[in-house]
């Protein structure tokens, strides 16, 4: 059992300004800095979770491990807030039977963010404790040991990091800018907001896979180091590969399609996608996580569109059901309307979208791609008209899609391709792919692509290929837009962009 | 509805050697090459799965889409084997009311691996049909249309590709060598063995995550492009990153540990891991899939070891329960003993392993690492003594582990580190990590590591870090060893090694 002030590993490991406990300190065994946990022993002490400290535990003696979120000395008392992930509780160290004045001073001087083991009695609070998640109880501390000591100066304050920007602007209170956050990500990720964002993101991945496995999909693993840049070589990172060189995959598409040609029928994969684009926007990363789907269909690519849309709907519903606490936590700092969607998902044709935009005063051609502002505007128009934050735009002009996109059978200027949008921003791009090597060759030629470079791709379809379609979803964008956040760096733990490679 | 010989897209799309149907062909609407499926229509035709064609469906008329696995003409009849993933059925086209002699000839001439839509009556077979999974029924074909035509010469024959090596050796029958397989992976992945291997691999990932999420872990996404090679720079791939350069992550370890320091407590990730090692062995890849775990513990790293071992046990059990068909399919080509494991998992200390090896005649020092042959031998000794194919080796000598490994608190020559083995091969390496920046600095100096290069790593622990441990599992190795296969390239869909970057 870690114990006794005397067991610390020397003065340099003690909190600042602490005096040696006086010889007459009757509590001297009850606090101190524990020696580093090196798996010396296996005590049978139970550590209770802070979120489980409720009125039902009143008057029980419990051990808790938490971080010192704040501490405030007040005469013969010290109030600590102990934090564990998104939960926190008030702890009181007061001079009395268990605590000496030296112990109160020790507690008051523990650096914020240090990890402590505390033994205390759970007491009902006389009135609701405002700043804590555990509002009905507090902990009356009987022993306190520092398990891991934080350095005294934090690069950012957690309370500043969760403050809504509007409060910062109106009241002049401190908030934390994005680069400071990202430079000190280990601290920034400790905030209730960050904890909630990334727990919810974990949930998105889980719901994505759960749904697809239920639908009979198989998870595949596709290589990230590839020998040829499949879409012509733009925006691709080069890797030195022994005495030669290679590329980082811009998408798993070729490999997903090979799996379809290899009879896996319905596949998905979750993995990093690399884009060497020098785009410094709120929604571009050079490395992001792709949630990718590819599926053989019987007669019509809408069979696939329906499966993808339903998968997203299952994700939205699952988040509502399982992550309500996290959504509310994020909303406190970043207020936003709840995410709305329809069942079945609204599907508009591109020409309808163009008509809606024109009616709103936008001038654009039939075969022109959507600009980012027009995407956003369209999102607002769709929301007004259909009351949904999620919809599918189908039948894009062939001219704005990649060479492997299947042309529309009726109108050769259109294609069997689609994007999906959340709150007016694209989160998925997909299409029926050409599965016929002859047509694929023609289309590649039309696009001026060097056939030699895509020979392996075209050859994949020479030994019988089922009609198929698919798409790729950007995980960070889905997280951002579901939660109504404004920058994809908020939903990437360690974002990569042209200017950031660390931490 | 695709129909009629006349709807083919011209002669070049027809199977070889086919004559134009005679004008007097009474079945001419009942066969042919369909036009490419371009999502022209949404027919309400139901395609039945081959695996669902059983005696219960006898005398029903069904539509099936499958590949022509084999075809054999015999007088006025043609026997086809139609395949769908791991399942296949015999189909008979016979001159009669529905089929003309031209139609039988057409069917007989369809290139193997072409995809066809077939309408037929399910008939009980007079005797078990040996070569097919559906042994009790056959399909009497009434219509047959080619959906996607394969080229006539296949680079490898599927029957050769599933032949057990011993048959090839004994009877001189053809088998397919590994490079031919990998060069033509789209075909090789269609075999029943490959289908089973990769469905089971998908199951491993699913069971890994299912188990950890049940245990309260959070899934994280870690960057693969990193600014500094964390373990000193050996065996790392370099990436050109805009005007600068970067590296591919050799493991997600630093990021997993940062998440622990950021209070996520229990995290896992599944993703590619890159090793620029010029090792051409049966078990090394330059890119593989890591199943990674990191977890804060209370007092002893065995809390983590137990969780990891239990996770693997849950995977083994889940595979037994859910993937029995796949295991049996693989066993047909690669016979092997069922995988054995104990509950709880056997945990031996390194010194015990050294003693067992010495008793078996091996000469080795106390602080010497295990060679590959000794690992294998130890696996056999452990199997003999304890009857398990899975065990943990604990307390490795400190000298053979990385600088961030926590030393043993009692014997400073040992460490709080462990490997896990399946059938005598390492599948996981892990340890308690040093969470104290001061000790970490000392150990890095001892290893002669440039402190400047690992500053960010050490700084992660300066603001309070809980004791933690973790490990990384190689997905391809787990798949290989569970199934008793002999080369990790059999369990990587698109393997990467120093000599292979394609497909």
Major beta-sheet overview of chain A:
8 strands, mixed
* Assembly classification: homodimer
Strand content of chain A: 15-25%
Q: For the largest interface in this structure, which chains are involved and how many residues does each contribute?
A: A-B, 108 and 108 residues
Count of alpha/pi helices of chain A: 14
The CATH homologous superfamily of the largest domain in chain A corresponds to Bira Bifunctional Protein, Domain 2
- How do the strands line up in the largest sheet of chain A? 7-11-12-17-16-15-14-13
Short description:
The structure is a homodimer of 503-residue chains. The first copy, chain A, is 28% helix and 23% strand.
Description:
The structure is a homodimer of 503-residue chains. With 503 residues, chain A is an alpha+beta fold. The first copy, chain A, folds into three domains: 31-148, OB fold (Dihydrolipoamide Acetyltransferase, E2P); 158-190, no CATH class; 193-490, 2-Layer Sandwich (BirA Bifunctional Protein, domain 2). Chain A has helices at residues 101-108, 158-161, 165-171, 178-183, 185-188, 192-214, 253-261, 302-322, 324-333, 350-359, 372-386, 437-446, 455-459, 475-482, and strands spanning 31-33, 61-74, 77-84, 87-94, 115-124, 137-148, 218-219, 225-226, 238-241, 244-248, 266-274, 287-296, 346-349, 390-394, 417-422, 425-433, 468-474. In chain A, strands 7-11-12-17-16-15-14-13 form an eight-stranded mixed beta sheet, with helices on both faces. Chain A has a five-stranded mixed β-barrel with strand order 2-3-4-6-5. Chain A has a three-stranded antiparallel beta sheet with strand order 8-10-9, with no helix packed on it. In chain A, helix 6 (192-214) runs antiparallel to helix 9 and helix 6 (192-214) packs across helix 14 (475-482). Chain A is elongated, with a radius of gyration of 29 Å. At the A-B interface, helix 5, helix 6, strand 7, strand 8 and strand 9 of A face helix 5, helix 6, strand 7, strand 8 and strand 9 of B. Chains A, B: Pfam families: tRNA-synt_2, tRNA_anti-codon.
């Amino acid at each position: 059992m870690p114990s006794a002030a005397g067991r610390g590993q020397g003065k340099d490991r003690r909190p600042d300004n602490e005096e040696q406990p006086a010889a007459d300190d009757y509590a001297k065994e009850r606090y101190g800095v524990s020696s580093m946990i090196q798996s010396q022993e296996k005590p049978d002490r139970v550590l209770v979770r802070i979120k489980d400290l409720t009125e039902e535990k009143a008057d029980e003696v419990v051990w808790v491990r938490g971080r010192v979120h704040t501490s405030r000395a007040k005469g013969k008392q010290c109030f600590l807030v102990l934090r564990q992930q998104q939960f926190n509780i008030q702890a009181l160290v007061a001079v009395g039977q268990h605590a000496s004045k030296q112990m109160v001073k020790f507690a008051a001087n523990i650096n914020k963010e240090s990890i402590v083991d505390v033994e205390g009695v759970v007491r009902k609070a006389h009135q609701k404790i405002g700043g804590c998640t555990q509002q009905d109880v507090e902990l009356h501390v009987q022993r306190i040991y520092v398990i891991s000591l934080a350095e005294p100066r934090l690069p950012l304050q957690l309370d500043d990091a969760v403050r809504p920007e509007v409060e910062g602007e109106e009241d002049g209170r401190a908030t934390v800018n994005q680069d400071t956050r990202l430079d000190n990500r280990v601290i920034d990720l400790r905030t209730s907001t960050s904890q909630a964002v990334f727990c919810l993101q974990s949930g998105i991945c889980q719901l994505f896979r759960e749904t697809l496995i239920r639908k009979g999909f198989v998870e595949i693993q596709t290589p990230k180091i590839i020998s040829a840049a499949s879409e012509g070589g733009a925006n691709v990172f080069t890797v030195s590969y022994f005495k030669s060189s290679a590329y980082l995959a811009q998408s798993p598409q070729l490999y997903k399609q090979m799996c379809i040609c290899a009879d896996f029928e319905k596949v998905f994969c979750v993995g990093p996608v690399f884009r060497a684009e020098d785009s410094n926007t709120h929604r571009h990363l050079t490395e992001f996580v792709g949630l990718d789907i590819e599926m053989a269909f019987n007669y019509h690519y809408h069979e696939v569109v329906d499966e993808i849309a339903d998968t997203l709907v299952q994700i939205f519903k699952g988040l509502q059901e399982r992550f309500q606490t996290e959504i509310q936590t994020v909303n406190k700092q970043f207020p936003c309307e709840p995410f709305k969607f329809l069942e079945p998902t609204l599907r508009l044709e591109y020409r309808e979208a163009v008509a809606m935009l024109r009616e709103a005063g936008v001038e654009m051609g039939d075969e022109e791609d959507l600009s980012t502002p027009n995407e956003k505007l369209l999102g607002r128009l769709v929301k007004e008209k259909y009351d949904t934050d999620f919809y599918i735009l189908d039948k894009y002009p062939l001219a704005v899609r990649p060479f492997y996109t299947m042309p529309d059978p009726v109108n050769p200027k259109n294609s069997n391709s689609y994007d999906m949008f959340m709150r007016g921003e694209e989160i998925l791009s997909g299409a029926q792919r050409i599965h016929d090597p002859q047509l694929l060759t023609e289309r590649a030629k039309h696009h001026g692509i060097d056939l030699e470079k895509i020979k392996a791709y075209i050859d994949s379809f020479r030994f019988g290929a089922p009609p198929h379609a698919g798409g790729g979803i950007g995980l960070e964008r889905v997280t951002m837009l579901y939660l109504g956040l404004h920058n994809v760096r908020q939903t990437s733990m360690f974002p990569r962009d042209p200017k950031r490679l660390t931490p």
